[in-house]
Amino acid sequence: MNPTTHADAAATFVRDAERTAWHDQALWFVRQRRDLAAHAVPEWEALRDLASAIKRHTVSHLADYLEEFEQRATRNGVVVHWARDAAEHNGIVLGILRARGVRRLVKSKSMLTEECRLNPFLEQHGVEVVETDLGERIVQLADEEPSHIVMPAIHRKKEEVAALFHRTIGARDDPDPAYLTEAARHHLRGALVAADAAITGVNFAVAETGAMVVCTNEGNADLGAHLAPLHIACMGLDKVIPRTEHLGVFLRLLARSATGQPVTAYTSHYVAPRPGAELHVVIVDNGRTEQLGRPDFRESLHCIRCGACLNTCPVYRRSGGHSYGVTVAGPIGAVLAPGFDLAAHALLPFASTLCGSCADVCPVKIDIPRQLYRWRQLAVAGGHVSRRKRLGMRLLGATLAHVSRYERAGRLVRRLLRSAPRLLNRPRLNPWSRGRELPVAPAESFREWYRRERGSR
Amino acid sequence: MRGRVALFVPCYVDQFYPQVARATLELLERHGLTVEFPPEQTCCGQPMANAGCERDALETAGGFVRAFAGYDYVVSPSGSCVHHVRHHYDVLEQTDDVRRVRAAVYELCQFLVEVLRIEDPDVVFPHRVGVHVGCHAQRGLRLATSSELSDRPGGVMRTLLERVKRIELIDLDRFDECCGFGGTFSITEEAVSARMGLDRVRDHQRHGAEVITSGDMSCLMHLDGIIRRQRLPIRVMHVAEILNGTAA
Amino acid sequence: MSREAILAAVRAHQAEAAPLPAIPAFGAGAHTELVARFKTVLEQVGGAWVERRAGSDLAAIIRSHYPDTARIVSTVDEPPDSTFVVTEETAPGDLVEVHLAIVRGRLGVAENAAVWVDDEHLPHRALPFVAEHLVLLLAPNDLMPDMHAAYAALAGRPFGYGAFISGPSKTADIEQSLVIGAQGPRSLLLVFDRGDSSRPMHGTLG
User: Does the predicted interface ipTM exceed a cut of 0.95?
Assistant: First the structure.
């Protein structure tokens, strides 16, 4: 079990009431922009249905599409690598870099490389890594993990970024976002010009053409990939889609769902290396084929990483991405993480009210609440929840299964609530009462009243 | 409408909110129905199942099916329990009884609007009211449009409330934000749960609600606990109470 | 080998074959609406536009919008001429000296103000990203209603690199405050190039 559970980390987060309100509102603002963008597209729901069906098809023919992609990409002059897990991925990347004597590497945002912990690995082996996405650079300089898959530094206030930039890149201590962005631009241009290699993620890999599509706003991915003599694209094997025409469907959904933009500023299609340069792609499994083998959770591989389920999740908004303790936080993260390691992440599926908002914003219509519900059953069956909870639920089940026991227990609880409310109102005994009063118990239950009043009927 | 109608009273409503169950019963009777309360009923099993202990809920769920097997309609003042029976009873062997009961359960407002076709609830409630649709009714049963799909609130409960005389339904900043109850979530994630509840109450307060109403007493139990702890000048009422003419 | 192991695992775990749906034709809208819609969305994403009257001078438009520009790289066959030479061999340190790039877009998308640019007409792929300011030329006849139509129009077009560019570079990574001009161009000017509007989209470009 996690040393710090989501509940503990969330309780710490919520203790700062003002910051919680700020974080909640920042994400709700993004959610509202998503609503405006989505509601402005008349065929939005039809697109979601299409996207879901395309993904379902793709995942059911995944091996063929991966091979087709590999074949086309190779023909285009791209070098294709395969990695079973994070360690193999990191080893492949280091091997490519070493063979070319790379010392300075620039990266644009890639959640896969976060998942594989690539940066610390490369730095251990003497490669200097500079994240070039502004949000990623902020968390890198702050020595933190991204707290959100699309907006990595959403948990940081501008004053904190100003202090950080002042300390680390010699900017003046000025919280104006325009100034801070400008300071980062100057700082990062230097790294981009000096880089020996660039790493990017991949949003979509098209089997039909071998194209790798990367969606960004800042221009950093293209600057990195086009200026350096070596470009390595790293992708999970779930990123492949069948044909170019499917890009139309996914791209119409992705940015609108993610940030409310009609499309990202740049939708880059990398097909062949530019003359004199090298282009590699590393296709990574790292637990994805296992998830593919779980019919209840297979659908989670449809995810296009838009982050909409994080933005809408009332629990994520009030607990922050770091409280999940995994690379992909929020509702989709709570479905993915137990697939990697159920014992370590068994409590994440419980970090949800199952309100269902995530399923309704999801552009590929993943039924996240249903999967959270299923993981909860497996977490309990696998013995990954506390004994106390386990016994409590068994007792509750045994009580509710028989009407006589149920009635006796109900009377007892009501009597306790009426005669000794303080006893039950102790937070240590009953966490409910930390922030809430218990119900005022009536003398008579409904069924007692019914028997008394209507018993003769 | 023809057929036998049973009332399902969720366990916590039976024990803590008998007035809500009475209002539901009287409301259905006021609309000309003969309603039975099968005495063997206890609970739908959701408290255990949502906590991951579906196996501990099997006997309770089996009891639910036995208690309600003979009825054409099983009406309940809870969208959440109805959702559980409709969507999570897959774990039971799908006998004829199980299938029938799953098809027969109705959330109260849906039953009033779609089965009884009530157009005029014929009650007066001269207050400013905020509507809280429980998430399982909203997105699970699709009894109200969710904000992800449409920018306007709607649904069966609102349809009924809009026709209550002299009622004023207030607008909220977030018309369908979750209240944070979530069953055992309210205990295991107590801090976030309470914070969500407080945010939900404040949204209603900001817009001048005197009463928060819902089709789910579980959401309201949680919100009421916060309201009383913070001593806020607002109160909760189940929609059955308003529709049955209970004074605020 | 990992490749075989992965593909075997995928094959072993794949679900029963699900069908691939056809993408229906969504409503397109009249051409005049497309132009208006493109302009509105372009403004929303931080870009600017200007309509070039037939026979008018591109150099004059550039002068009026970018009066102090010295280092221009133009990839179109008319003045203003490039004042700075960029080739495939230009070093990164020199590329970042480009102040203004003038590039012809092959097509535009009304729903999101994206303009397709690819390496057929780029002396260096980095050009539209390193330039401080980007001017895109586009013929109104090359406007498509949506991304479906855009990809259909691009079908069969060979390119090693291509991008949809929608407005100038931007970020909202700090407190969700939108800042125009992140790491790529600080501004984007779209010149509707009526003089060239008769040029067909297909056939001559591939």
Answer: yes
